[in-house]
Amino acid sequence: MIPIIISRIFEPLIGFILLFAVAALRSGVFGWDLIFMMSIFFLTMIVPPAALLFWAVKTKRITNWDISDRSQRVWALLVFGVFLFCDYFLMQYVGTPLMQQIFLFLLIIFFGFFIITLRFKISGHIMTATLVLLFLMSWYGWITAPFFLIIPLLGWSRIVLKRHAMGEIVGGVIYPLIVYSIAHFLQLV
Q1: I want to staple 183 with a disulfide (CB 3.0 to 4.6 A). Which of 2, 113, 162, 189 is the partner?
Q2: How many domains does the chain have?
Q3: pTM
Q4: Where are the alpha helices (DSSP H) in 59-96?
Q5: Residue 111 structural domain
Q6: Using one digit for the tens of pLDDT, what is the confidence trace for 64-117?
Q7: How far apart are CA 124 and CA 144, in angstroms?
Q8: Inter-helix orientation angle 150-160/2-9, to 10°
């Protein structure tokens, strides 16, 4: 029961909501403007992929919410990629420069994740948690370091639930670290 709760609390879609909200606040978006942006984000970037994923599980097109079968991930990620690409252009219209920068970064990291998925499997939960924590650390400094304990806790839950092997967990940490480090070095984030 505890591993399921941990996995659901740190669901990638929830991580993206947190990242987007913090980025909006860091960009100086408050009050009704924040509510408007979060509503657009939620209705266009969270609800459609979540509804599609729910439908795919219910109609047995995929085995489970986590898309544990790597071969099933390819088509799901293609669809999510189309949503992300559309959302990137929407963000150019309603987002702040920081949010636009984050969405460009998300497109890049998603493309790499998709390529990796064609051959291997890494944890999307761990990748998203690592990404969110890297952004939080870059914005707020070492005060956020204790939150990195979430990663081994989440990794443990994914292994206990038999959703991933240890190598897939490690890959879910290393991949975003490498991409984020390169993007940071090139001053893209």
Answers
A1: 189
A2: 1
A3: 0.89
A4: 70-94
A5: 2-185
A6: 888 878 788 888 888 888 888 888 888 888 878 888 888 899 999 999 999 998
A7: 21
A8: 130
